[in-house]
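Obj.: predict assembly geometry.
Materials: sequence records (below).
Method: joint structure prediction, all chains together.
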Amino acid sequence: MGKSLFDKIWETHIVKNIDGGPAVLYIDKHFIHEVTSPQAFTGLNKRGIKVFRPQQTIATADHNVPTLNQHLPIKEELGRLQVEALIKNCAEHSVELYGLGHPFQGIVHVIGPELGITQPGNTIVCGDSHTSTHGAFGAIAFGIGTSEVEMVLSTQCLMQTKPKLMRINIEGELKNGVVSKDIVLYILSKITASGATGHAVEFAGSAITSLSMEARMTICNMSIEMGARCGMIAPDETTFNYIKGRKFAPAAAEWDKKLAYWKTLFTDADANFDKEITLDAADITPMITYGTNPGMGIGVNENIPTLAEVNENDKSGLEKSLAYMGLQQGLPIKGQKIDYVFIGSCTNSRIEDLRLVANFVQGKKKADNVEVWIVPGSKQVEKQAIEEGIDKIFEAAGFQLRQPGCSACLGMNEDKIPAGKYCISTSNRNFEGRQGAGARTLLASPLSAAAAAVTGFVSDVREMLA
Amino acid sequence: MKEGFKNITSTFVPLKNENVDTDQIIPARFLKATTKDGFGKNLFRDWRYENDNEATPKAAFVLNQPQYKGDILVAGKNFGCGSSREHAAWSIVDYGFKVVISSFFADIFKNNALNNGLLPITVSEDFVQKIFAQENDATLSVDLEAQTITIDATGEKESFEINSYKKTCMINGYDDIDYLLNSITEIENFEKQSL
Ligand code: SF4
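Observations (raw structure tokens):
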């Protein structure tokens, strides 16, 4: 029987299998940030040990950092303490830190790929669930808890049970105005927020292979929203071209050697999956969520489901979500007034996302009733946006281009959406209170978010495209 | 080394919500600590208090109802979904729970729980509903050695899965880090051969 992409990588990273238990899995690359690492370093210090392989860990400050005036000391005390702890821990343990002010600083899942650290065939972990993003390069990449961060820091290994395998095929061509975020929100609306629990998901099919690396990352990023352990896409020419020449990409003879290996990383034709689904790209329209989990999404022209339409088990959840969101069952979502627009997060804050938005808003202005925050994923994205003059387009449209960080994706810093306000957001989670206590989040693509920024309400971007 | 897990018989707290995500268990604004202690007071913060104020508890929320208490939290399906923050497990442990029961757990949460001596028990949806149907003072008995959970009043019993490695760890109070640190030579050999 043939092997899947997942199996090929998994098998070469097993240090040993424990009888009746998990496997000891070797980790190639480990990303850390200020929020989920302090307690892990405390654990190491308590045991009196140093980081085992400091060169395989890369640190940045992103979750908690301000997105305005990053050159000034962080005002909020607890957040500042975490950033200071990270600086101290990295120095003591010889871990490379791309902290505030560093030209490589940014959201962990944006900087890993853009620096060429993320490579096919790697095992990659980080104390953040959206580590699945890196799977877009044909890597096994997943989020871990702080105890596991401590394990990787101290031994470069983790205890893992092998997940089941699932393949999601998207075949055909996307319609105009439909982008990769819509694909993933569409999958979520079909399989629900627990549809892939316990599985490693491989995304395949012609609609996936025709996507850019940025777009692939958006899809793998949200595999965790399906409950998946990780998401991945087989590497191909698009992947190799993206990596080539980046800061930490292999070069010269090392490149040829790596490339030859990378080309073996695909699922064999006769490999088996525990679950497999195929969806048609042509059925996908611009998507938007109306509820409080990412599986509660609909096409922008559809109506919010009614209690009568959903399963008995989902009724109370739907009722509770709609009450929180202040939305009515059975009514259209299109036309819903918006107060904030957030374009950012590790899902959609790469240069391609910013270009897409800039292209759309050029010559347009934001509606008076909305505030628009654009938060680039990294210093490098910010720099490039400025070089390309994208900042000017945003300024003319009344959009605020802020400094890199997680920002309103999780509302740990000051970038919070006030209670009761509606925010159309390109991030990945619409949980109650995610963007601030009482905040109401509608997840959508950067294009749909830009459309709402211009009209002030949920709009079908296709009607606004030339 | 943590304390080993002892079998328990206790009343329980029924949290009937499904898809309880980690942002509800512990909202992100409480993640700014650099230690693992003290998270219990912010467990389910926004469901527990009006306007984030401890002086105004929400009476309808189960943790604010004195008739519900005990070492066991029983929740609707897909408990612990969302972020990988281990703070969710810390806050449940710090609040005083030793066991969480649901018909479905998110993967990362389950791992995080086990790494902190909190036993996640997956039972059938039917069994969860049976537990929810019990009186407030009903007790449940958890036997980790036998891998069973019993509703004491009716004697109804279900067995649960846990891999033998994790079970030994839980019973003895040692964790994965202890195990890995003892395997360091094998890890170094692996590096020599594979990298
Ligand atoms: S942007 Fe949001 S999802 Fe991504 S790493 Fe930051 S907090 Fe996590």
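Conclusions so far: The CA atoms of residues 45 and 151 of chain B lie 29 Å apart.
To do: check interface contacts against the pulldown list.
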